């Protein structure tokens, strides 16, 4: 058959979907109202089963409205104890309306550098949850929460065995029983609106953290919704695509963009304003008309939620100290070993590395400081001009003309 668009577009309202029997009776843990099929049946998807969602579409295709409807679907069904949200919005306009609702773990993150920290926190939280689950010998968050509920109902205390030291005489390890602090774990949904902007600011870090979350966070109850305006290969890289089996494409500008996100053409012929192709995990593609939610409605919902309670923010999600600790962890060289400087200036760090290791070459500085060739070359030129190293010989080696600070003082 041939699909023909209607002469008059029908508006699908979120209210209809929330009131539908499918949504009310659903057993889904994180039910999302995606819209209606061409036959008018509601499409209700489960984010917990997806387990992560990739959304793409040009400006004006209805992408941000769809993200609003997904957020409202979650807020409509789940209490703050059951589901917490982390929202990353580099555009500063789309999601900032949700600031102050009790479901948020941190105020809406608008600074791309803070976004990296928030995503790294999500990775650490995932690892922490896995440790807790392994102690209870459960396989996912539902099993953990069920086990905690049973223990509380029965008044049971769950203990774990921890090693506290070694016996002085025999040298054997000493173990003690420790009572576990048991609270049900909420789902955490991380929503990133405009991935392209984050990839420009911190591409490698963002890609690495999103890859880790996408690969492992499902069992820990952490789910990622990723939206982007530019579905090109430098934003949606192969690693990111491989870990997001469920995808939604709104209208895109070219066949190439459609192939990037869905793996086949067709999204460039959509009609815009909420017309989407929804690709479920198995690769089946369904055409869906997304529901419309006005800004006024979103504001009313947010105002109502704010009367229900204040958000309990976790400072650790975006605190800079965490970022510092992360840097020390991943540093190629140890800053303490550099001796002569605590500075963050790459030039001073490079001088310290050269004087300490007695190796002066552009490629060595590149490796130790993890910087690009152009920057390393200009640092070497500056060292030569300031008389720290000599000119390069035929093999590219340079003589070091200055001694390290300690020897110099003697």
UniProtKB/TrEMBL annotation:
<keyword id="KW-0238">DNA-binding</keyword>
<dbReference type="Pfam" id="PF09397">
    <property type="entry name" value="FtsK_gamma"/>
</dbReference>
<dbReference type="GO" id="GO:0003677">
    <property type="term" value="F:DNA binding"/>
</dbReference>
<keyword id="KW-0067">ATP-binding</keyword>
<keyword id="KW-0131">Cell cycle</keyword>
<dbReference type="GO" id="GO:0005524">
    <property type="term" value="F:ATP binding"/>
</dbReference>
<keyword id="KW-0132">Cell division</keyword>
<feature type="domain" description="FtsK">
    <location>
        <begin position="40"/>
        <end position="259"/>
    </location>
</feature>
<feature type="compositionally biased region" description="Acidic residues">
    <location>
        <begin position="318"/>
        <end position="331"/>
    </location>
</feature>
<dbReference type="InterPro" id="IPR050206">
    <property type="entry name" value="FtsK/SpoIIIE/SftA"/>
</dbReference>
<dbReference type="GO" id="GO:0007059">
    <property type="term" value="P:chromosome segregation"/>
</dbReference>
<dbReference type="InterPro" id="IPR036390">
    <property type="entry name" value="WH_DNA-bd_sf"/>
</dbReference>
<dbReference type="InterPro" id="IPR018541">
    <property type="entry name" value="Ftsk_gamma"/>
</dbReference>
<keyword id="KW-0547">Nucleotide-binding</keyword>
<dbReference type="InterPro" id="IPR002543">
    <property type="entry name" value="FtsK_dom"/>
</dbReference>
<dbReference type="GO" id="GO:0051301">
    <property type="term" value="P:cell division"/>
</dbReference>
<dbReference type="InterPro" id="IPR036388">
    <property type="entry name" value="WH-like_DNA-bd_sf"/>
</dbReference>
<feature type="region of interest" description="Disordered">
    <location>
        <begin position="318"/>
        <end position="345"/>
    </location>
</feature>
<protein>
    <submittedName>
        <fullName>Ftsk gamma domain-containing protein</fullName>
    </submittedName>
</protein>
<feature type="binding site">
    <location>
        <begin position="57"/>
        <end position="64"/>
    </location>
    <ligand>
        <name>ATP</name>
    </ligand>
</feature>
<dbReference type="Pfam" id="PF01580">
    <property type="entry name" value="FtsK_SpoIIIE"/>
</dbReference>
<keyword id="KW-0159">Chromosome partition</keyword>
<dbReference type="InterPro" id="IPR027417">
    <property type="entry name" value="P-loop_NTPase"/>
</dbReference>
<comment type="similarity">
    <text>Belongs to the FtsK/SpoIIIE/SftA family.</text>
</comment>
